[in-house]
Write a structure and sequence with these properties.
about 80 residues, alpha+beta, three-stranded antiparallel sheet, 4 helices, 3 strands, globular
Length: about 80
């Protein structure tokens, strides 16, 4: 694995861990919205994954954002 790819994967892993650590707050504040995280920071919130990825890439053009939809409470009820 080349150095650039390894670094990118390590950063993405940190962002994914940040999402796990802050999942409850993301769901509480942004339920039903898409969020983008770069460098362990929430950088965009919106109504579509493409929208938040575009916003995140404008803020951090050399980074690949971690994008997910913050679950709504009723989405979580189906999991129980």
């Amino acid at each position: 694995m080349n150095g650039s790819k390894a670094l990118r994967e390590k950063i993405m892993e940190k962002d994914d861990l940040w999402i796990v650590d802050h999942f409850s707050g993301l769901v509480t504040k942004h339920a039903g919205k898409y969020v983008a995280v770069v460098n362990e920071t929430l950088v965009a919130v919106g109504d579509s994954d493409k929208e938040v990825e575009r916003k995140a890439r404008q803020i951090e053009p050399n980074k690949i954002p971690s994008v997910l939809r913050a679950s709504r409470e009723e989405d979580m009820a189906c999991l129980l």
